[in-house]
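Much of our argument rests on the idea that a fold can be written as discrete symbols. The record that follows shows the chain in one-letter code together with its fold in token form.
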Amino acid sequence: MSTQLPAQPLSPLDGRYRAATTGLADYLSEAGLNRARVEVEVEWIIALTDRSIFGTSPLTDAQKEQLRALYRDFGQDEIDWLAAKEAVTRHDVKAVEYLVRDRLSTLGLDAIAELTHFACTSEDVNSASYALTVKRAVEEVWLPALDAVIAKLRDLGTEHADAPMLSHTHGQPATPSTMGKELAVFAWRLERVRGQIAASDYLAKFSGATGTWSAHLSAEPDVDWPAVAREYIEGMGIGFNVLTTQIESHDWQVELYDRIRHAGGILHNLATDMWTYISMGYFAQIPVAGATGSSTMPHKINPIRFENAEANLELSAALLGSLSQTLVTSRMQRDLTDSTTQRNIGVALGHSLLALDNLRRGLNEVSLSRDVLLADLDANWEVLAEAIQTVIRAEVVAGRSTIADPYALLKELTRGHRVGPADLASFVEGLEIGDAAKQRLLALTPATYTGIAEQLAK
């Protein structure tokens, strides 16, 4: 048996790929969650004392700053303290409560120690903490990474707006487009879903053991506790869920993860299309100095950025789908299935973030081979059959032609056959159509049969 390795990260997100995903760890790691929990506990104390509840006096600005430093300066000492305390309490949120109480004592604020975690159930603190951490992770890390991919697609869409290319509907030669327009489609799709993600709700509850404010009212029946809770939660920049069980129902999370999974599906489509365009020679990959494509074939430059993105988007989609399916349900007023599930939010978003990083880098490492696109178009003149039969139909309607069934006529000429420019020119010359229509068709080539693709791309 081999000797045991030194401690190693089990997940590649914390090992091989850590550089690409480290921004999420600041929010969605266990330490990030605990920092947010300290923030929620501290701000609740400040909210209660600001209202002089139970005869307390509002804290001075200096005292508030001292308290807020508990989460603003949260670091290794607090991480180690909580780990040691949780080993005893066997309860993560209770350990956070004890940390805040300990620091209150250090600051000489023992008189308000009992306001720590006052009338709270763990889910009050957790729901607010997850709302804060997920919101910050999405808005400050994930969305900027998505924006970088969208921006690159927009740039490429504009740069290649006028680059005609053969389309391949069902994998077969089809009406030409431009590469810029095809890439602009992805930017357009992603921008729409991005708007939905950016408008997401991030909700928390703060209503006690079963969502009824029972303990609060027992302690002080004359306070409008729902109003106090709403003002407190909304004051932290997140939304308030007034009607819940013990837990915040997580519907906002289901909505968010489904939207991110939707964006991932579009990105997956982009990755596979780019891989295919590279395999067809439409894009050349720019060599990176010192890089190896194959361990045995020196000539190869493999499209690893798009392959990596494809795989990580599939992992992310699976995890996001599992999160959505699990979090939508809680037995009766509470079960703990959401506890371990939510600890994997960072993993799900991490695989998505890694994919975004690879897509951005991949799009920066390709060069359009316009000569290949033009050669492909020149080898497929039969795609003009659509234009010819459509013009004939218009001429029939206008009374300038008596040709019967134009579609069948072009089908007979082109289906399953290769036709060249001379063949089509001869065919068009013999058509019974007006001279203006005939000249438009004779001037048409596969490279110019792109409609308004260039304008659409721009």
The chain is about 60% helix and 5% strand. Residues 380-449 form a domain with the Ribonucleotide Reductase Protein R1; domain 1 fold (CATH 1.10.40.30).
